[in-house]
Amino acid sequence: MFSIIRTMWLTFLHAFHKRETVQYPEQKNKLTTRWRGRIVLTKDPDMGERCVGCYLCAAACPVDCISLQATEDEHGRRYPEFFRINFSRCIFCGYCEEACPTYAIQLIPDFEMGEYNRQNLVYEKKDLLIDGPGKYPGYNYYNVAGIAIGGKGKGEAQNEEVPVDVKSLLP
Amino acid sequence: MSTPFHPMLIIAGVLGGVLLVAPGLIWVERRLLALWQDRYGPNRAGPFGLFVVLADTIKLFFKEDWIPPFADKFVFVLAPAIVVMTVLLSFVIIPFTPGFIVWDVNIGILFFLAMSSMGAYSIILGGWASNNKYALLGAMRGAAQMISYEVFMGLSMMGVVLHAGSFNLQTIVEAQKDIWYVVPQFVGFMIFFIAGIAETHRLPFDIPEAESELIAGFHSEYSGMKFGMFFVGEYMGITLISAMITCLYFGGWLGPGFLPPIVWFAIKTFTFIGIFILLRASLPRPRYDQLMEYGWKILLPITIVNLMVTAGILLWMEN
C-alpha cells in the first residue's frame, strides 16, 4: 500500500520534470557530421566527377538499391553513365561509403526526404551529384592515382616518380 | 424536494455535460499521461491540442464499422449500446447542485448499483457475441471482476448510508454540511475508490481488456463507432465514479461560498478523474488471480468490519 502511494507520488512529480520531446518541425536535433543520411555523389576540387564506376558500392549494398553503368570519356577517364539509388530500399548502412575507393559516394546528415509518390524516391545522377568535395576537401582521385588519363601521363601524379623503363640498360 | 429548474433543462444539461466531458476526457487523459511521462501529448491541433477530440471523433465515425461474419449480429450491436445506456442512466441520480438532479429518488444509491451491475452485461454480451476466444476470455474476466467488486462496492457505501440515514444522494450531500464523510468513512472511501476503478475496468484493474494478454479483451472485434461507444462508456464511467465519490465522501457541491456549487462539484470530480489517470500512469496491472484474491480475501473482510464498526459506533452514540 505504501509503495503504491509512493509510486503515484513519484509519477506525479514527473509533471515538473523537463520534457523529453523534441518539437520536431520547429526544434531539430543536431545531427553530427558522421550522421548517415541522404547519399550524395561528390566531385573533385577541380569539379571532375569522383566516381569511377567501379561497382564496389553496388556490390557492397546489402539491399541492392544502387544501380549504375560505367563508361569512359575521350580522355580515358571513367565515370558512371547513369547512377541510380532507390531510397525507398536504402537502409542507410553506409557500406557504399566504406566501399568507395575514391570517396565519391558519401552519406550526409540529412534525412528529410519525404515524398508523396514512391517513384520520387528513386534518385538519378542529377539528384545525387553535388558541386563539392564533401567530407574530403582536398582529395582528387586522378591526381593521386597511377592511371594515365588525358592531360596526365604515367608518373605525373602526386608523390609519383616517372616509371623506370625496364627494357633499357642505361642507368 | 422541489427544484428551481425546469426538468427538461436539467436533462439537457446533464446529458450535454456528460456527453461533452466524456470525449473531452480523451484529451485530458492523453495530456495528463504525457505530463507524467515527460512528454507533451497532443498539442498541435487547435489550442493546446484540443481539436484532437474532434479529430478522434471524426475518425471513429468514418472508420469501417465491421461486424465479423462469425459474430452474433444482434447481440454484437446491442452490447456497446448497453454500456452507454447504463452509465447515462446512472447519472440520473447524481445531484450536481442543489435541485439540479434529474430524478430525485429515495433509492438513489441502489439505482446506481443496479445500473452499474447492468453495465457488466455489455462486457459479457460483447465478448460472447464476438465469438472470439480472446474476447470471451476478456468478457469472463470482466464478469468475474465486476461481480466480485460490486459486492463490497455496495457494502462500502452502506457506511455513508448509515451516517446519513438515506439512500437519496441529495440528502447524503446535505448531511455532509458539518464534516465530509471521507473523515469518518475513510476506509469506506478507499474501498469504494478501489472498487470504482475495478467497476470501470480502468488501469490497474483493466484486466478484461488487458492489451498484453488479450489484445483488447472483450472489444477485440469492435471497430468504428461501436468501439467508440465502449470507449465513451468507459470515460463516462470514470466521470460517474468520480461524481459518486464526490457526492458520497467529499460533500458534493458543498464548499466555501466564493465559488458557485457547480464549480465545486466540477473541481472535486475532475480531481478524482485526475487521480484515475494518475493511477493509470503509475501502476502496473496485477495478475488475474491476485486481483480476485485481493478482492475477496482482503477488501471484503475490511468492508464488512468497517460496516459493523460504523454501525456499532452510530448505535453507541445514539444511546
List the helices and strands and how they pair.
The complex is a heterodimer of chains A (171) and B (319).
Chain A: H1 2-13, E1 39-41, H2 56-60, E2 66-72, E3 78-86, H3 95-99, E4 105-107, E5 122-123, H4 125-128, H5 141-144
Antiparallel strand pairs in A: 1-4, 2-3, 3-5
Chain B: H1 7-36, H2 52-62, H3 73-90, H4 108-130, H5 133-164, H6 169-174, H7 186-199, H8 211-214, H9 224-249, H10 261-282, H11 288-318
What does this structure look like?
The complex is a heterodimer of chains A (171) and B (319). The termini of chain A are far apart. The mean pLDDT of chain A is 87. In chain A, a hairpin with a 5-residue loop joins strand 2 (66-72) and strand 3. Chain A has 171 residues and is of the alpha+beta class. Chain A is built from five helices and five strands, in the order H-E-H-E-E-H-E-E-H-H. The longest helix of chain A is centred in the first third of the chain and has 12 residues, at 2-13. Chain A has helices spanning 2-13, 56-60, 95-99, 125-128, 141-144, and strands at 39-41, 66-72, 78-86, 105-107, 122-123. A three-stranded antiparallel β-sheet of chain A has the order 2-3-5. Chain B is mainly α. Helix content of chain B is 68%, strand content 0%. Chain B is built from eleven helices and no strands. The longest helix of chain B is centred in the middle third of the chain and has 32 residues, at 133-164. The model of chain B has no long low-confidence stretch (mean pLDDT 83). The interface between A and B is medium-sized, with 14 and 11 residues.
Question: Can you summarize this structure?
Answer:
The complex is a heterodimer of chains A (171) and B (319). By secondary structure, chain A is an alpha+beta fold.
